[in-house]
Amino acid sequence: MKDTFDLIRDLTAVFGPSGQEQTVAKVISDLARPYVDEITTDTMGNLIAHKRGEGPKLMFAAHMDTIGLVVTYFEEDGALRFGKLGGISPKEIRNVSIRFANGVMGTVKVHGKADEDKLTLDDLYLDIGAGSWEEAQSMVHTGDVAVFATAALPAGKRIISPYLDNRVSCAVLLKALERCGKSPYDLYMVFTVQEELGLRGAKTAAYGVDPDMAVAVDVTGAYDYPGAPKSGSTVLGGGAAIKVMDSSVICHPEMVERLSGLGKEKGIHTQLDVLTRGGTDAGAIHQSRLGVVTGGISIPCRYSHTPTSIADLSDIEACIDLCISLMETK
Description:
Layout: H1 4-12, H2 22-32, E1 38-41, E2 47-51, E3 57-63, E4 68-74, E5 80-85, E6 97-100, E7 105-110, E8 124-127, H3 133-139, E9 145-148, E10 153-155, E11 158-161, H4 164-179, E12 186-192, H5 200-209, E13 213-221, E14 240-245, H6 253-266, E15 270-274, H7 282-285, E16 293-301, E17 309-312, H8 313-328
Parallel strand pairs: 3-12, 3-13, 13-16, 14-15
Antiparallel strand pairs: 1-2, 2-12, 4-5, 4-9, 6-7, 6-9, 7-8, 10-11, 11-17, 14-16
């Protein structure tokens, strides 16, 4: 498998918005296959990589879908109006390059009469180079989804990239699988769908796997930049973030203590993740059936849901190490 940066770069470039995760699922399946006993896909499209073991069921979940822009209306002049898949801020996507699954490229532009300080999605349109309604209709269709067309870039010991939420966590689980030794658990590595639309895939995956314990691996807000809101506790370079809570879950205290203890025992740099907004697959998993002992391992990330989110490679490696430590330690 490629090194961590190259793996993240490749995964963030794969088309896979919510509801259309098939391509990224195929890429992840091919990468995971040498390290597991079986790979299945459930009805929702969740990819379930199973490494058989004799112990309790331990499930890791990382969602593989991304946010996107869905075409809703064609203007006479060839401009496209659009809605959103997942959390998108109009101010954050102005002048951003986009691409469709069929290769059509475009950019997000602001209507000339819009108030730049009070932008809504109705003030934006997609310009795909079409000069008329007919030409635009020949290029894309109603319901087609566009994603950011920017690429991952190195920035010293950090990475600037679209869709670190949550392809970076898919990379973490893949690297953990690659490096993991013998496990006392029956391991399930689940790459979930439609998290950005309300944790939909995780709900069905958790019901199907029926784990004894689970960990959601996702990004978390790092608000350590100028003028940032104080909405979370983590910082870039602070290590793997052990989730305590967010708006979707209060993590099981046993799992918080377990992950914290492993960090100290193994010399892994960790920090606590307390977030006042957002959520992860843990929100659905911990409520499955009669309840699941659930925790979270988070990668601190600035500017999530923008084309230029930033994460620290040392934090990513710490998250890989913490996942491996949990996999190998009963």
